[in-house]
Structures are given as structure tokens and as C-alpha cells.
């Protein structure tokens, strides 16, 4: 009963719902006459035929509808250029809504249909004089988007005109157009530079950032053009929009690196010596640390990291840490940068290492970077905490993270030597884990730890040079040079002679670790790890005394060889090679033990018919090596003719060298340098670059961008350039001096600051630039007017230090009719600028 | 050498909206889309995809930076050695703009308003790859929002003749007098409201990690002051707090005068219209100089027993708070090879059945391999127990060694930040002011 009722109810409900929906749809259709809606977006292609007809109709509504259909087609990547003529007719439409859509169409299609766009170029030129700044900017954007070199002069004229536009919005578009024109044809470089000088003088923070960006794009080496603008740019920094701040800071970092003297760190005799212009930049940039935009925060941090004297470096740590909590994506990128800073200046983050703890829901890259950062922050004080953390991370569900965590434990042991026993205990605990990854990684790390430990006490002079190859594979290579005594002397024969009391006591623990590893050889399945254990057993499997079952060989060693021999055929090549080495070493230690020799012969025979060249070669090499030391290794077991012949040939007086046992021992056992965990290479990539973030995949980037990096972050110059070059009419305190300099030339009574030239020419390290500030003084009346003005104002300006910036604002706000705005604005800019 | 373009993919991975890649080969955007879809398909678990994917097939080096918004993927492609942070900041700004325009950002709203989205895209990202105008208040003068008024205006102007001219003219003058000459870049001039109000939402989130032995390894509280302003004219506001010293490492909306904050710890600003985030901060407990660990408001006791092909567990969750916690959610990743889970749930000693009651429930998601336990209301010092077992295909199962706990606490703040007063100068009207507190937490509890 209930069920039926419920059914009836739900049916009614759905009906009602549908009714409501229908009515709503009907009503909204009335309302949203032009609202496209998904019906337009998902429209069938055959309806597209009407578009041309619609575009030519007299009704704006029809036209709007057609334009929307066109844009829907664009977003589906359909060809739309056939409508071009019909669309262009509407570019002068009085309906702004329609015009904007037309422009969007043109912005999309003009670059790909330059010839058609050329036909309508007159319209765009007319639009450049439109009363609406929006239309002017859009027209300029379309014009500069037509990538045909032949119209470049027209475009250039348009850009020049727009560069002097009253609206900063249009001037911004002009700066961007400069970039586009430059991309199409570099021949207009001088004209563009000329336009740039106009744009750089811009007072509006809205367009100033873009102007600097344009200069940076078209003429990255012409930093000299920024001399006179440097101080103004610094002061305007807080008012520029976020994207502009990023660009300006990047350019200014480069400017400072090339033009200013490097800060001198504080010494006993005197304090820090920082150029006052650099101080100005840092002081103006510092408040931007409080910006919400992560890119800005990084740009400021970058400026401090590369420019600031070391005493100010601590300011970057808190803002950079804040980036970690912005979003997952930002955290991922910021960690790459933090890693670089943490490696070079661990002090900055040591107190806040708990901000880098790995969470299980972090992305794999984030986890791995965090482990690296934590390692960089490892000190004698916090290594206990970090060790516990890494032990937790070893249980992660991600194999690569597990590997990183376990290797990190190994690093702690080498960074803080006193912690080695703890690390070893932790790693030994991992050997018993049920997870393959944990076991094999732990073995790899244990191997290098044990080996380093066994090596270091005996060789007081730590001449363990990092070898480019890993030690297992280095066996062959290192055996050759170790014949020459010069190298092997410093490394005494640690495995063979544990006679000195000092080395035995230290070596005791590592040896018991090898014994445990040997006993667990069956559980260690990862080929790399297995090979490691085999090598360790062979290398350190010797004992002195006669208490063992096989004289000279530790009790646990022969059984490992037995097990390895049994599974020889199913092992990986890497393991086979190490089995051979193990066999060779053991029979060398006990050349008279019959079982061992037989076992070795068995292994050598198997290896001789192995698929792998390397295995066959290694077997042959080892065998020949042992000929003189172990009797019966060659002859007795080789039934087939090849070995016999070869052997006979050799014995028949071929001029080969037969080594004595001591010599073979030396070849096989000595000269094994300890594995050095990859040294952290100081990262040459600057902060804020993709290649730094994509560390693992940066090879491709490395190749083609090397020059760019140099440009992006040049080294400090020996000496800065003359700071007087940065004096400009904008600079309140400097105005006086600059005016004096000029007037001194006019009256020729005072000293001339610039050594050459009759005009105050801006000295440029990179060739002839036009002196820009002279242009301002072309008009003598203007010059005198501004001189008196600056003298009048100098006192006041010195006090608030914002100079013309604020007075300019006052002027604009006085034009405003809104009283509230006029009252408000200067105070706000005052607050932020001073 | 910048942001090449922006692509919006629907939940199935097909592009809905795409900026123009006219200066690039046709395959360029496709390669990026493919790279992202491949990475998403390969990801072993949610959120493990690298947000920056390197696309190396092309002659120039490029990468795609992507975020998820409303089930869709927003993807910005960058080329050259630029900072990916710029791309992410741009994606963030663009999403904010879409939210401002359409309220909800979803496939449906974007398809409904695709022409506006395209206009916004042209205005926010120049074809040279540099962001243009991203302030919502400025944009609203350039691109009309799809509100009812603009619809009506458009329909009026659709009738041929005089009205359309007037509209175009009025828009032009509006554009000239509005955004482009407004002395404050983030606020348009001449706003009028009949009812003036400004609301603040202080949202604090605790992020913590608790170690195996129950000690707090890290716990930080991050706060956000969200505002919704509907004020006329050019209101100059000053917001003061009774305890501003609990705020550290602040970040502010561009409207805040930084100088004043550093000098008197007061927020002085002219707000933009509508929703915006006024400030971000980190809570610094007053007694300590450094930002240290904040006590975690709950505790978890976990008895885990790992066996072959699965394991059993007994979890006891207890609140340490006087307030009621809401929407408590505990997640436990059981490993790639987990097959099923069975649990019983009980509250303070009394059993509530194997599936749970209205107050609490558990579920196992076989796709994400995650066990989820939800408690709608957790009273002060209330305690819940979850017992159960799970099975796995492999002999030695590999579950995550931590539980993810999320919770919400309405009208509560960890920092007890308190607004002292909000003063309005430069305008004479009375305004309605409101402040709300809200807290949430996300704790990782290791075992």
C-alpha cells in the first residue's frame, strides 16, 4: 500500500517538476533573447549555413545571434574564415555588444587570414580614433595581430599614436603591440625603441609594468634605457598591478646585477655597504611580500635572494613558507624553489622544519621534494626527529617515496656521524619488512653505509674519491688501477687484516650486519639488492683464525654461494655477475677447500654458456686471474675441448702473466672506494623558472635555454656604474643636483660631472643610446619652469619622498567630479608610496 | 615565453573553451590536452597527478599547469623558462572572475555563457601571453555580466534604430568615465546601493599532523577574512582588532594600505564591490614568539592489526572540544589492492548497527580504495568507535599509514580573533556590518 502511494507521489512530483521546468524555460526564453545558452553552443553544424544571411540582416539581434554561433564554431575548432567578409562589415556597428563579438572573431581570425584582414585595415584605423578606449585598444590589438610584414608601417604608426593615448588602458595595449610587431619583423627595432622611450615615461601604474615588459622583450640588453626610470619604477612598484610587479621585479633584478655594485658584507672594520639605489628597491619591494598573488611573493623573494645583503635574507623565509599553504599546485611549485634556498641557506628554515612534514595525501612529487628539503635542513640537533619522520615515510604507499625516505636515512648517517648506530638499527629493522621495496632499498643503503664504515677507520687520510661508477659495476674497472701501488697504498687491506684493535671494534657491528643480510638472502629478491648482498659477503667474508668450518672464510659466507649457485640460471645478469665475483673471492680465501672449489667451478661453467656477454666475459676474466692462485680452477672440470685447448695454449708458454695469490687478492679485494651518495650539486637554475620546477625533465630545457639563463640572472659586475646616471627629473632629492649639473654646463662655471660630452649624455656601457632626458629640456622655457618648480617643491618633496608621483595624482583627481574620490585618492597613494 | 593560452576541459577530458593558439602549430593545444588526460588516467589515486606536466614532444619546451574547478580542468600552457606560479596565479584569478560573473562555475554555466567567457578570456589574457585586466571590478565595465539587466538591455537594443545607438553611446561613456579613469583600479566609480552593508567571514583552517605515539608533530592554523561589500560611493574603511597580534605572516588584497598595517595593525582600505578576500594570515599563539603548535581538538586511538590478505582495526575518536563539531570525516586509504571492508559503528558504548544511523555512517569506495567514516554531529567530549576489517588481493597489504580527519566547527575560531570596530570615513551613510567566525580542520593521524 505504502509502496503504491509512494510511486504515485513520486510520479506526481516528477510531472510537477517537468511542468515547472517547462514554464521556467519558456519564461527565460522570453527574457534571454540574446543569451546564447548551451543550445547555441551545441548547435548542429548544418545550421551554420544561415550565419551569413543572419550577418547581413538589418536586425542587430540576428547579427548578435550569428556572431555567437560563429564563436561557438570557433571553440569547436571549425573553419570560420569564410565568414570573414560578412563579419568585417559589422566592425563599425553602433551596437557595442555586437562590435565586441566582431573583434573577438577578428582577434582569432586575423592572424590566420592576414590577406582578408588587410582589406579591412581602414576600418581598424578609423577605430583607433573611437571615443571609447575599449574600442581603440581592441582595434590596436587586431591590427598588431595581423602578422604581415608589409603593413608593418601602418601598424607602427598606430602603435606610436596609441603610445601617446590619454587612456592607460590603450597605452598598455600599445606596449603589448610593440612586442607583437617585434616578433613579426625585427627590422623595425629602432622605431620600436623610440616608441618605448615614450612608453617608459608613462606615469600611470596601469601601463608602466607592461612598458617595462615590452622593453625587456624587444631589447633585453638595453637596460641602460632604464637608468633614468629606475628610481621611479621602484617607487611605483606598490601601485603597479600584480602581473606588472612580477615583470618589473624581474627586469630590475637584472638591472641591479648589471648596473649596481655588489653589497659588501659586514666586516670587523665596517658595517655592510649597500648601494642606496639597491636599498631603495628592496625597501619598495618588501611590502609586496604581503601580496596575495603567489607569483609576486616569489618575485620579491627572488629579488631578495639574489640581491640583498645577507643580513636581509631572513626576510624571505616567512613569505616563502606561506606559499606552501596557498594551494596544492602552488605548494608543488614553491617546494622546488624552497629546496634551492634551503640547500644554500638552511639556517632560514631550520626552526620551521615541521612545515615540510610529508602528509600521506600529498602528490608524489611533493612528498619527494619535502624529503629533500628536510634532508637539507638536517643538523645534529634535529636529526632524531627527522630520522623518525623518514622511518614513517618508508611505509608510504608510493615506491619512489619509500626509496627516497630510506636513502634519506642513509644520508643522515653520513651527515651526522654520531647517529650512524641509530640509522643502522632502523635499516636493519626494515630488512624484516614484508614489503619488497622497503627490503631492497634498505639493503642498498645498508651496503653503502657498511662499506663506508669499514673503509673510514682504516684510512685516516680520507682520500676516498667519488667514483663516477657504482662500486659493484666498478669491480672490473677498479681492479686494473689498483695494481699500481700508488693508489692502493692509502687504502689498507681492510677486509683481510682486522688486526689492529681499533678497526676491529668499529668493524664488529658492520660485520654482524653482513652476517644477518647473508642469512636473509632468500628473502631479498630485488636484483639490485641481491647483488649488493652477494658483493658484501664476498668482500667482507674473510676471517682470521681457524675456528670456522672453512679456514679463512666466515661461517655464513659459503652457504650464500651455495644458494646463489642453485638459483644461478634464474637470476638477473646483475646478480650473476656478483655470484661469479663471490665465487672467485671465496675460493681465493680458501684455495684448498674442495667443496668450495667445486661450487665455483660449477658457477663458472654455467656462466660460460650464459646468454649475456658480460657474464661470459666476467667468468673468463676471473678464471684467468685465478689460474696461478687456485689449483684446478681451469683444468680439472673442463671436459670439453675449448677450455683444455685454451688452457694448454696458455701453459705452453704464451707470454701471459700468471699472478701469485697475494697479487690476485690485491686485485680482487682492494681499492674499493666507498660509495659516496650523490653530492648535492648546487643548482645553477635561477628561482622562478620552469626548468627548476621540472628538475627531472630539465635536460631538454637545459640545451636550448642556457644563454637565456645567463641573460636572466647575470653575475654581479665588479663595480657599479655611476649612480648619477640614475638621476632624473622625477627624483625629488636628486632633481636639484641634476639640474645643477645641467645648469653648470649652461653657465660653465662649476665642475662638470660627466667627463665627456657637452650635454649630460647618459653613459651607456652598451653602445650609443639616445640621451632621453635631454629631450625633456629641448624647450628652454620648460626647462627653466621645471627648475624653479623643483626648487620650490624640493623641500616638501624631500619630506614625503614621493615627488611628482603624488602631485600627478592630485591633478588627475582634481579633474574628477566626484568629491569623495578627489579627497581619497592622494591620501591612498601617499600611504602606499611613502 | 609566457602563458600561451588557456583551455577548459569538461569532466570527460574534452575541450569546451580554448583560447586562440594562432601563432602555434595546430597540434600544440592538442598535445597538451593529451598529456594531461594521459597523466590523469595513469594517476594511482586522487590528487597524485603532478600539477605541472612537462610536454616535451614539441620543438620548444613547454609545460601544462592545471587545476580542477567544478569538476572541470582548467589548463594553462606555458612555454619557455617562465615561473609556473604565474600560470597558477592566473588560473586562480580567472576562476575568481568566472565565479564573480556566473556565481557557480560548472559545465552548464560555461556553455550557457560561452560568448561572455570568450570575451573575458580576450580581456584577461593577451595573445602575447601576458595577463591583461584581471580585476573583477574593472572587467565588469568592459564585459557586461549576464545579469537580468544586461539581458533586458540587449533585447531592447536588438530592435533596430535609435535605442542601440544610445546604448552603444552610453556604454562608451560609461567605459570612459568608469573603469579606465577610476582612480582606484580595483573599484569602479559611482556605485550606488539602497542598502549599504559589508559582511566579514573569518574562516580558520587547522592543518596538523599527529605522530604514531600521539604527539603533535605539526599543527598550524591559517585564517582568511572573506568579505562581501555592498557599499555606495568610495567608502574608506578602517577595521581594527582587539588582538591583532594573533595574526602573523599576513597577505592582503591590493586595496589594503600596507603602511598602516605595519604601523598601527589596523586594516585601512577602500573595498572593491562584491566578494573578495581581504586578508590571509597565520595564527600565532600569543604566548610564544614563533608560530608553534596549536592543540588539536580531537584524539584518535587506533588499534591496527595487519594480517595476510587484509587486516582488522578498531578506531576510537574523541572530541576534546566544548563546541559541537560538524561533518566529521575520516578517510583511510587501504592500498591499491584492497578489495572490500566491513565495519561496525558505535557511539559511546551503544552499537548503532553495521551501516550506521543518521548521525554516523561508513562506506568503502572501491574505486579510490578508501574507507570513509562520517559523523554529522560530534558533541563535546563525545566518543565514537569504528571496528572492522578489510581484505586485500596481496599477501602483504599496503594501506596508508595515516588517517585523514576533516571537521568543521561553526562559530568558533582557533585564534579567537576579535574585531574591535569598523569605521567608515569619507561617506556619510549608515551601513550594516556583520562578522561571522567559522573553523575547519584537516588532521593527519599516523599509526
Automatic annotation (TrEMBL), chain A:
One Gene Ontology CC term in the entry: AP-3 adaptor complex
Keywords, comma-separated and alphabetical: Membrane, Protein transport, Transport
Biological process according to GO: intracellular protein transport; vesicle-mediated transport
Pfam families per the UniProt record, alphabetical: Adaptin_N
Compartments, record wording: Endomembrane system
Composition bias type Acidic residues, residue spans: 788-798, 807-820
Compositionally skewed regions (Basic and acidic residues) per UniProt: 772-781, 821-834
Chief place of localization: membrane
Transmembrane segments: none
Recorded family membership: Belongs to the adaptor complexes large subunit family.
Xref: PANTHER family: ADAPTOR COMPLEX SUBUNIT BETA FAMILY MEMBER
Protein name: Adaptin N terminal region-domain-containing protein
Annotated source species: Suillus fuscotomentosus
Automatic annotation (TrEMBL), chain B:
Keyword presence, Lipoprotein: no
PROSITE patterns named among the record's database cross-references: CLAT_ADAPTOR_M_1, MHD
All residue ranges annotated as the MHD domain in the record: 195-447
BP GO annotations: intracellular protein transport; vesicle-mediated transport
Protein location: Endomembrane system
Family as reported in the entry's similarity comment: Belongs to the adaptor complexes medium subunit family.
Family annotation (PANTHER family): AP COMPLEX SUBUNIT MU (PTHR10529)
Name this protein carries in UniProt: Clathrin adaptor mu subunit
Species this protein is from: Suillus fuscotomentosus
Amino acid at each position: 500500500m505504502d509502496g503504491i502511494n509512494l510511486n504515485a507521489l513520486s510520479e506526481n512530483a516528477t510531472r510537477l517538476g517537468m511542468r515547472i521546468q517547462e514554464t521556467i524555460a519558456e519564461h527565460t526564453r522570453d527574457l534571454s533573447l540574446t543569451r546564447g545558452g548551451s543550445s547555441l553552443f551545441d548547435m548542429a553544424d548544418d545550421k551554420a549555413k544561415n550565419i551569413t544571411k543572419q550577418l547581413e540582416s538589418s536586425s542587430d539581434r540576428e547579427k548578435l545571434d550569428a556572431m555567437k554561433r560563429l564563436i561557438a564554431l570557433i571553440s569547436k575548432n571549425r573553419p570560420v574564415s569564410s565568414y570573414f567578409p560578412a563579419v568585417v562589415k559589422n566592425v563599425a556597428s553602433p551596437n557595442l555588444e555586437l562590435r565586441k563579438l566582431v573583434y573577438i572573431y577578428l582577434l582569432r581570425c586575423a592572424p590566420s587570414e592576414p590577406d582578408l584582414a588587410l582589406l579591412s585595415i581602414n576600418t581598424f584605423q578609423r577605430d583607433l580614433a573611437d571615443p571609447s578606449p575599449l574600442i581603440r585598444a581592441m582595434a590596436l590589438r587586431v591590427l598588431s595581430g595581423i602578422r604581415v610584414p608589409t603593413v608593418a608601417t601602418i601598424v607602427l604608426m598606430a602603435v606610436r599614436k596609441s603610445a601617446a593615448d590619454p587612456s592607460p588602458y590603450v597605452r598598455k595595449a600599445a606596449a603589448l603591440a610593440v612586442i607583437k610587431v617585434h616578433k613579426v619583423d625585427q627590422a623595425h627595432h629602432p622605431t620600436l625603441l623610440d616608441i618605448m622611450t615614450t612608453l617608459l615615461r608613462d606615469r600611470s601604474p596601469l601601463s608602466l609594468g607592461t612598458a617595462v615588459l615590452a622593453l625587456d622583450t624587444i631589447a633585453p640588453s638595453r637596460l641602460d634605457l632604464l637608468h633614468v626610470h629606475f628610481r621611479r619604477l621602484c617607487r611605483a612598484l606598490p601601485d603597479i598591478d600584480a602581473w606588472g610587479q612580477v615583470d618589473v621585479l624581474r627586469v630590475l633584478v637584472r638591472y641591479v646585477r648589471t648596473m649596481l655594485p655588489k653589497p659588501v658584507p659586514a666586516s670587523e672594520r665596517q658595517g655592510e655597504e649597500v648601494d642606496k639605489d639597491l636599498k631603495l628597491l628592496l625597501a619598495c619591494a618588501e611590502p609586496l611580500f604581503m601580496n596575495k598573488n603567489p607569483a609576486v611573493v616569489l618575485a620579491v623573494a627572488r629579488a631578495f635572494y639574489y640581491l640583498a645583503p645577507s643580513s636581509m635574507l631572513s626576510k624571505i623565509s616567512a613569505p616563502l613558507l606561506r606559499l606552501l599553504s596557498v594551494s596544492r599546485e602552488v605548494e608543488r611549485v614553491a617546494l622546488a624553489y624552497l629546496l634551492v634556498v634551503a640547500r644554500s641557506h638552511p639556517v632560514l628554515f631550520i626552526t620551521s622544519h615541521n612545515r615540510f612534514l610529508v602528509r600521506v595525501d600529498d602528490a608524489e612529487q611533493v612528498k619527494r621534494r619535502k624529503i629533500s628539503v628536510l634532508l637539507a635542513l638536517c643538523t645534529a640537533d634535529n636529526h632524531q626527529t627527522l630520522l623518525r619522520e623518514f622511518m614513517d615515510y618508508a611505509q608510504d604507499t608510493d615506491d619512489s617515496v619509500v626509496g627516497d625516505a630510506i636513502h634519506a636515512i642513509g644520508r643522515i648517517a653520513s651527515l651526522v656521524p654520531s647517529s650512524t648506530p641509530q640509522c643502522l638499527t632502523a635499516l636493519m629493522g626494515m630488512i624484516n619488512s614484508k614489503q619488497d621495496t622497503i627490503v631492497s632499498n634498505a639493503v642498498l643503503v645498508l651496503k653503502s653505509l657498511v662499506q663506508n664504515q669499514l673503509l673510514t677507520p682504516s684510512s685516516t687520510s680520507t682520500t676516498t674519491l667519488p667514483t663516477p661508477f657504482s662500486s659493484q659495476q666498478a669491480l672490473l674497472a677498479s681492479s686494473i688501477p689498483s695494481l699500481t701501488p700508488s693508489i692502493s697504498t692509502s687504502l689498507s687491506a681492510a677486509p683481510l687484516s682486522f688486526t689492529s684493535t681499533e678497526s676491529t671494534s668499529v668493524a664488529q657491528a658492520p660485520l654482524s650486519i653482513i652476517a644477518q643480510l647473508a642469512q636473509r638472502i632468500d628473502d631479498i629478491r630485488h636484483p639490485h639488492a641481491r647483488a649488493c648482498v652477494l658483493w658484501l659477503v664476498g668482500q667482507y667474508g674473510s676471517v682470521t683464525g681457524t675456528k670456522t668450518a672453512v679456514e679463512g672464510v666466515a661461517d655464513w659466507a659459503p652457504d650464500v654461494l651455495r644458494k646463489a649457485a642453485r638459483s644461478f640460471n634464474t637470476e638477473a645478469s646483475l646478480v650473476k655477475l656478483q655470484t661469479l665475483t663471490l665465487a672467485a673471492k671465496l675460493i681465493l680465501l680458501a684455495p684448498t677447500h674442495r667443496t668450495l672449489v667445486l661450487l665455483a667451478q660449477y658457477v663458472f661453467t654455467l656462466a660460460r654458456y650464459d646468454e649475456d656477454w658480460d657474464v661470459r666475459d666476467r667468468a673468463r676474466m676471473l678464471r684467468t686471474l685465478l689460474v696461478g692462485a687456485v689449483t684446478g680452477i681451469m683444468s680439472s672440470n673442463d671436459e670439453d675441448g675449448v677450455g683444455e685447448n685454451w688452457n694448454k695454449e696458455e701453459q705452453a708458454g704464451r707470454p701471459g702473466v700468471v699472478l701469485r695469490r697475494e697479487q690476485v687478492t690485491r686485485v680482487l679485494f682492494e681499492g674499493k672506494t666507498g660509495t659516496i651518495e650523490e653530492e648535492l650539486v648546487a643548482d645553477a637554475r635561477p628561482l622562478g623558472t620552469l626548468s627548476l620546477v621540472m628538475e627531472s625533465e630539465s635536460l631538454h630545457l637545459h640545451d636550448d635555454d642556457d644563454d637565456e639563463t645567463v641573460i636572466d640572472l647575470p653575475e654581479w659586475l665588479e663595480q657599479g656604474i655611476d649612480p648619477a646616471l640614475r638621476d632624473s627629473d622625477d627624483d625629488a632629492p636628486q632633481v636639484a643636483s641634476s639640474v645643477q649639473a645641467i645648469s653648470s654646463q649652461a653657465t660653465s662655471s662649476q665642475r662638470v660631472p660627466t667627463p665627456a660630452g657637452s650635454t649630460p649624455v647618459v653613459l651607456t656601457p652598451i653602445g650609443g643610446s639616445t640621451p632621453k632626458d635631454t629631450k625633456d629640456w629641448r624647450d628652454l622655457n620648460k626647462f627653466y619652469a621645471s627648475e624653479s618648480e623643483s626648487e620650490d617643491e624640493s623641500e616638501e618633496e624631500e619630506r614625503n619622498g614621493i615627488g611628482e608621483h603624488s602631485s600627478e595624482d592630485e591633478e588627475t583627481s582634481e579633474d574628477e567630479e566626484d568629491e569623495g574620490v578627489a579627497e581619497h585618492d592622494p591620501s591612498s597613494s601617499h600611504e602606499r608610496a611613502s | 615565453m609566457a602563458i600561451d593560452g588557456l583551455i577548459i576541459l569538461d569532466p570527460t577530458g574534452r575541450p569546451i573553451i580554448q583560447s586562440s593558439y594562432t601563432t602555434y602549430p595546430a597540434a600544440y593545444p592538442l598535445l597538451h590536452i593529451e598529456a594531461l588526460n594521459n597523466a590523469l588516467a595513469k594517476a594511482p589515486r586522487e590528487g597524485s597527478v603532478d600539477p605541472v606536466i612537462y610536454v616535451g614532444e614539441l620543438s620548444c619546451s613547454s609545460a601544462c599547469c592545471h587545476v580542477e574547478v567544478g569538476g572541470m580542468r582548467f589548463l594553462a600552457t606555458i612555454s619557455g623558462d617562465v615561473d609556473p606560479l604565474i600560470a597558477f596565479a592566473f588560473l586562480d584569478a580567472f576562476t575568481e572572475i568566472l565565479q564573480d560573473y556566473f556565481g557557480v562555475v560548472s559545465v552548464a554555466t560555461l556553455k550557457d555563457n560561452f560568448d561572455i567567457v570568450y570575451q573575458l578570456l580576450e580581456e584577461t589574457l593577451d595573445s602575447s601571453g601576458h595577463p591583461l585586466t584581471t580585476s573583477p571590478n574593472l572587467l565588469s565595465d568592459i564585459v557586461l555580466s549576464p545579469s537580468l539587466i544586461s539581458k533586458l538591455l540587449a533585447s531592447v537594443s536588438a530592435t533596430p534604430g535609435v535605442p542601440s545607438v544610445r546604448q552603444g553611446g552610453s556604454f562608451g561613456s560609461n567605459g570612459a568615465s568608469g573603469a579606465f579613469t577610476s582612480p582606484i583600479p580595483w573599484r569602479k566609480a559611482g556605485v550606488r546601493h539602497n542598502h549599504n552593508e559589508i559582511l566579514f567571514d573569518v574562516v580558520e583552517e587547522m592543518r596538523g599532523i599527529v605522530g604514531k605515539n600521539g604527539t603533535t608533530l605539526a599543527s598550524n592554523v591559517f585564517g582568511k577574512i572573506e568579505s562581501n561589500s555592498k557599499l555606495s560611493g568610495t567608502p574608506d574603511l578602517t577595521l581594527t582588532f582587539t588582538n591583532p597580534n594573533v595574526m602573523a605572516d599576513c597577505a592582503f588584497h591590493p586595496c589594503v594600505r600596507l603602511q598602516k598595517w605595519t604601523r598601527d595593525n589596523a586594516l585601512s582600505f577602500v573595498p572593491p564591490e562584491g566578494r573578495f578576500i581581504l586578508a590571509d594570515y597565520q595564527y600565532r599563539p600569543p604566548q610564544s614568539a614563533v608560530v608553534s603548535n596549536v592543540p588539536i581538538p580531537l584524539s584518535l586511538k587506533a588499534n591496527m592489526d595487519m594480517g595476510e590478505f587484509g587486516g582488522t582495526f578498531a578506531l576510537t575518536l574523541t572530541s576534546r572540544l566544548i563546541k559541537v563539531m560538524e561533518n566529521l570525516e575520516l578517510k583511510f586509504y587501504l592500498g591499491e589492492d584492497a578489495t572490500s571492508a566491513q565495519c561496525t559503528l558505535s557511539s559511546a558504548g551503544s552499537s548503532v548497527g553495521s551501516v550506521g544511523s543518521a548521525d554516523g555512517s561508513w562506506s568503502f569506495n572501491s574505486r579510490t580504495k578508501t574507507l570513509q567514516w562520517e559523523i554529522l554531529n560530534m558533541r563535546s567530549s563525545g566518543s565514537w568507535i569504528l571496528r572492522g576489517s578489510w581484505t586485500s588481493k596481496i599477501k602483504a597489504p599496503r594501506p596508508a599509514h595515516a588517517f585523514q580527519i576533516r571537521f568543521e566547527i561553526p562559530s568558533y575560531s582557533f585564534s579567537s580573533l576579535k574585531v574591535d570596530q569598523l569605521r567608515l570615513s569619507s561617506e556619510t551613510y549608515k551601513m550594516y556590518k556583520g562578522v561571522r567566525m567559522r573553523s575547519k580542520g584537516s588532521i593527519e593521524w599516523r599509526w
